[in-house]
Design goal:
The complex is a heterotrimer. By secondary structure, chain A is an alpha/beta fold. Chain A has one domain: Pyruvate-ferredoxin Oxidoreductase, domain 3 (3-Layer(aba) Sandwich), CATH 3.40.920.10. Chain A has a six-stranded mixed sheet, sandwiched between helices. In chain A, β4, α2 and β5 form a beta-alpha-beta unit. Chain A is globular, with a radius of gyration of 15 Å. Chain B is an alpha/beta fold. Chain B has two domains: about 210 residues, Thiamin diphosphate (ThDP)-binding fold, Pyr/PP domains (Rossmann fold), CATH 3.40.50; about 110 residues, Rossmann fold (3-Layer(aba) Sandwich), CATH 3.40.50. Chain B starts with a strand and ends with a helix. The chains are: A alpha/beta, B alpha/beta, C alpha/beta. Chains in contact: A-B, B-C. At the B-C interface, α3, α4 and β9 of B face β1, β2, α3 and α5 of C. β9 of chain B pairs parallel with β2 of chain C.
Chain lengths: ~180, ~350, ~260
């Protein structure tokens, strides 16, 4: 099993912490994982992205040039990363903020109204969790249980109420994938 | 030991140094190593140590010069341009026999270059780096775990032989997160005996002088030859190298650090296709595992060097093999990161397989 | 017979390499006497610079360290942070302190680094053979300004005490000279103040000492002394440029 993932969006959408959570969950599940952020000058100007690899074998490079899945949180990220998605790969699209759709016919799109669901749950900030819930249910890269358990490990400063909201958001995201 | 944690390479390196006894850090911001001083700025005071954001790289290395002369386990870190600035001070430390430790989280060069991972500072690291005839003990980690665990060895060697030691990493190893385990318990610095060259309160002993000069005729040559014999001892005792499946190999892949990670994956891909590939991965790049290369070159006739530079590391491979095998080079400089599949392609080309 | 004068224990009993008429020997003795009088011979670390006083590490009967050109204040920072119980003295010349090491000097002062600098200002690079220094006077000749220092080409001589006095971290700054016995005595008092403040943990202290270099000034020792008196002091006025604030009435009562 090998999954190379890129998660991308605006700064503040929890793209980096979402990537770390995914990597952490993979570690909990006993997988080989790496997390690699866009750093320095790349992260200026309000956009953020990171690469995560979850694998059953040692990971050579944490840089994901051609991802198996992309988790796209905003419009500019679709344009930037959609062309790099491997044929047969899956595009997870935050339809709350992205109006464009992919024109590629060799990939699958999972539409996730992440912001709307997050708002229903009470805080727009957990849109990244909705996205991860959908991704994990679809890809089975890590277990939903590990993801929910790891929330407290990654968001160490959050109180129980916020942690539970995040766990709910993960479930709601997962429910979108049949 | 402790449960696995997920840490960024730079932070793992900083924590590893603190656990290995580092109590003094002076540095200056530069990407992609900023997490090291950031981490040290709160972690060292917690341990009763000292963190200083210096006015320059030059000042930082000279603060180490002073603190090291007082016996502290000291550290600085930087990336290419900043390490260049520190070279004068590193040379002074080598000349004054001060056991400093530093890390270069290499970025693309020359000049300001970029902030992407690179291995372009190989010559600088393995040839001493500054003026004069000296070498530095250089370890090349290939994972976040090794970033965390190598500082201990660096301090051990630095203090044993009184030479500078360093970790040569790159932006990828510094920025990535990976699960890690520390393979050693934190060093209790109060139990380390004070060496007999340390400056300070000199009750009951003769005064001590730390210096890197000697103008008396013949004295500096004498000192250089003494340094040479220390270098020989380090070469004899401190080489660390990993070899994987070289026994039946028809081709040996070799690289260090990040390149070696990718070599291992390329080897796995090749073996799956029935191509017998092995890997030599030097963990110390000075001293270089010359003997291991030489012995393997007696049996294996094809070597493929993978490096994120224009052919620096390959020179040490050539000097070790001395013409006994054919050597090819796969290079990805200044931000290019080799990919296992592309290396497999090169292997097939070399071996004439489709 | 009763001894009325003896050599300071602060200096090693070997001949110094300084030229006849040079001020370094006098200042070395003053520094050594103060260390001895303070009972700090076993607790002092002296930093020798690059320049004529590079060999200071051989002359002082204390622990010593010789460092890179201009980096004395940074080295002192490292020493003092690890051994705060020691008296840390950075001995520097004008090229060392005000040219190549300007950044280290200013930043150590600004950090209120608890160290003392003995700054020998003789307006010339001595060790390398008489090149222009950052403090070379206007019109003064050197091997790299053979027609005399001109503002158009070289700018102005640095007034280091005045410059550092603007920094909150500098606690005590005084400029003295060693061209006449009365000035030598004043210099010793200034050195003692600086070292005492350091051991009280009060911050950055520096004594700038105007000194003479007959050899590279191409003057006789007597002429050199005249130059300090007539030319240097008028550009580099002697005096205290930063001193501890006078205690308020309340504080005086407490004492």
């Amino acid at each position: 099993m090998y999954q190379g993932i890129i998660m991308a969006g605006f700064g503040g959408q929890g793209v980096v912490s979402g990537g770390i959570l995914l990597a952490y969950s993979g570690m909990v599940d006993g997988k080989y994982v790496t997390f690699f952020p866009a750093y320095g000058a790349e992260m200026r100007g309000g956009t953020a992205n990171c690469s995560v690899v979850v694998s059953s074998e040692e990971v050579a490079s944490p840089v994901v040039a051609f991802p198996d899945s992309i988790l796209v949180m905003n419009e500019p990220s679709l344009a930037k990363f959609e062309p790099k998605l491997r044929p047969g790969g899956v595009l997870f699209l935050n339809t709350s903020l992205v109006s464009s759709r992919s024109k590629r016919d060799d990939i699958e799109t999972v539409e996730v109204p992440a912001n709307e669901i997050a708002e229903e749950l009470g805080n727009i900030k957990c849109a990244n969790m909705v996205m991860l819930g959908a991704y994990v249910k679809k890809s089975k890269a890590v277990s939903i249980e590990a993801l929910k358990k790891s929330v407290a490990k990654v968001y160490v400063k959050a109180n129980e109420k916020v942690l539970n909201m995040n766990r709910q958001a993960i479930e709601r995201g997962a429910e979108l994938v049949k | 030991m402790a449960e696995k944690t997920l840490m960024k390479g730079n932070e793992a390196l900083a924590e590893g140094a603190v656990r290995a006894g580092c109590r003094f850090f002076a540095g200056y911001p530069i990407t992609p190593q900023n997490e090291i001083p950031e981490y040290m700025s709160w972690r060292l005071p917690e341990m009763g140590g000292t963190f200083i954001q210096a006015e320059s790289e030059v000042a930082a290395i000279n603060m180490l010069f002073g603190a090291s002369a007082c016996g502290a386990r000291v550290m600085t870190s930087s990336s290419g341009p900043g390490i260049s600035l520190k070279q004068e001070g590193i040379s002074y430390c080598a000349g004054a026999r001060l056991p400093i430790f530093y890390a270069n989280v290499v970025r693309g060069g020359p000049g300001l270059g970029n902030i992407a991972p690179s291995q372009g500072d190989y010559y600088q690291a393995t040839r001493g780096g500054g003026h004069g005839d000296y070498r530095v003990f250089v370890m090349a980690p290939g994972s976040v775990s090794e970033m965390a665990n190598f500082p201990r060895k660096c301090y051990e060697v630095a203090f044993k032989y009184r030479i500078p030691s360093m970790i040569l990493a790159d932006g990828l190893l510094g920025q990535m997160m990976e699960p890690l385990e520390f393979d050693f318990e934190p060093v209790d610095t109060s139990t380390i005996p004070e060496p007999d060259w340390v400056l300070g309160v000199n009750e009951g002993r003769k005064r001590r002088v730390v210096r890197s000069y000697d103008l008396a005729p013949g004295k500096m040559e004498e000192f250089n030859l003494e340094l040479d014999s220390i270098h020989s001892e380090v070469k004899a005792n401190e080489v660390i190298c990993e070899t994987i499946e070289t026994d039946d190999a028809e081709l040996v892949l070799t690289g260090y650090g990040t390149s070696a990670r990718v070599c291992k994956s390329a080897m796995a891909l090749a073996r799956k296709e029935g191509i017998k590939v092995g890997v030599i991965r030097p963990i110390t790049i000075w001293p270089f595992p010359e003997k291991i290369f030489s012995e393997i070159a007696d049996k294996v006739k094809n070597f493929l060097v993978v490096e994120m530079s224009l052919g620096q590391y390959i020179d040490d491979v050539k000097l070790s093999i001395l013409g006994k095998a054919k050597i090819d080079l796969h290079k990805r400089p200044a931000g290019g990161i080799p990919v296992a599949e592309e290396i497999l392609g090169v292997i097939k080309q070399i071996l004439g397989k489709s | 017979m009763k001894k009325v004068f003896e050599r300071t224990k602060g200096l090693v009993d070997i001949p110094m390499r300084y030229c006849p008429g040079c001020g370094h020997g006098v200042v070395h003795r003053l520094v050594a006497e103060v260390i001895e009088e303070m009972g700090m011979l076993k607790k002092a670390i002296l930093i020798a610079p690059v320049g004529c006083s590079v060999f200071a590490d051989e002359y002082f009967n204390t622990d010593a360290i010789q460092g890179a050109h201009g980096r004395g204040p940074a080295i002192a920072t490292g020493l003092k942070r690890i051994k705060p119980e020691c008296l840390v003295i950075s001995y520097q010349g004008d090229g060392d302190l005000a040219s190549i090491g300007m950044a280290e000097t200013i930043h150590a002062a600004n950090r209120a680094e608890n160290i003392s600098i003995i700054f020998i200002n003789n307006a010339i690079y001595g060790m390398t053979g008489g090149q222009m220094a950052p403090t070379t006077l206007l019109g003064m000749k050197s091997t790299t300004c053979p027609a005399g220092r001109s503002v158009d080409v070289n700018g102005y001589p640095f007034k280091m005490c005045e410059l550092l006095a603007t920094l909150d971290g500098a606690y005590y700054l005084e400029r003295t000279s060693v061209h006449a016995p009365a000035n030598v005595i004043k210099t010793k008092k200034a050195i003692k103040k600086a070292f005492t403040y350091q051991m009280e943990g009060r911050g950055f202290t520096m004594v700038e000492i105007l000194s003479q270099c007959p050899t590279d000034w191409n003057l006789t020792p007597l002429q050199a002394i005249e130059r300090v008196k007539n030319e240097m002091i008028s550009y580099f006025p002697l005096g205290v440029f930063k001193a501890p604030p006078k205690p308020t009435k309340q504080e005086t009562v407490k004492v």
